[in-house]
Predict the 3D structure of the following.
Amino acid sequence: MPSIRIPACFMRGGSSKGVFFAAADLPAARAEWDPLFLSVIGSPDPYGRQLNGMGGGVSSLSKAAVISASLREEADLDFTFTQVAVGEALVDYSSNCGNLSSAVAPFALERGLIQLEDGPTSVRIFNTNTSKILIAHFQVSDGRAVETGTFAIPGVSGTGAAIRLEFLDPAGAGTGRLFPSGNLKDRIVAEDGRVFEATLLDVGNPCVFLDAGAFGRTANETIRELESDTALMALLEELRRKAAVLMGLAEDESAAPSAVPKIAIVGVPLPAKDLAGNAIDPEKADLAVRMLSMENVHRVLPLTGAMCSAVASRIPGTVPADLAKQADGDVRLANPSGILPIGTDVSLEGAPTVRSVTVIRTARLLMTGEVVLPA
């Protein structure tokens, strides 16, 4: 029986990679999407390498995106993000991917879903996972997004053309509220009786923030130092699931989504080295963050997690704000791949309000053609 071939593009967006599809090329029945994405990405893989698919063995490389022209007056494109688990047959639609968002408009131009004149332009994107609008600002040349440039981002070798992403009204993307529990801080009781103070915040995606000091850590550790501590990793996953219940994302811990909430330990920036061996100057950072999702420590901060971290650090009384430097300008987040600046527009008059969050990414088309699936 012949194989199944589906038009697709393999793209890097920010510090993530994923397989991009036009919605019209996929089955009309959404129930058929999950097995298709699992086969394309190469999951489940008990070896953790996804050699039989397009994935890369970690959550930031195990993703797919579906794009279509939007019928909404307020948007030009619709974007559905899918997080594919590595070791289990799970496709999660509960969150957005900020990094892959930077590749949405370039993909749409490549596939002819939209046509734009050359020069600086803006494209409005509706994310179906969160029902939020983001605007991508970038350059077009010869009908395609410009890729070459001098802008560098942490965790990505080389440089590219800047794509400015403006996330509008990003609060409550997963829960409907900036503070899903209604509190600046909550107390989470672990099974062993220990009590941890946490901030539960929802900007871009729901996130949980804990002081690294409560675990005898600083949030400046290497990925290996954290992931090799199996007791710590298990405890953080337990707390993440308990937080999911407090945030209204699940009725009980066993039903907590795999992709959200993301959980992070935060601390004061200290001298460290990034994954490339370069020194991270703590004087150039405001907050140190080590974030987990899908039970992995992120090599680079997921963009929505970084957005949430930056906003939290700007709201007095939260766990991140208690530890962060309060400087003017962007919030600079120290992470395993360097320092990531995030622009925030937060109003503290009355109840805190997040007008927008802005970040600059780059994107690149890596392959265009067809993905091949067994019949």
In short: The mean pLDDT is 96. The longest helix spans residues 230-246. The chain has seven helices and 21 strands. The first strand starts at residue 4 and ends at 13.
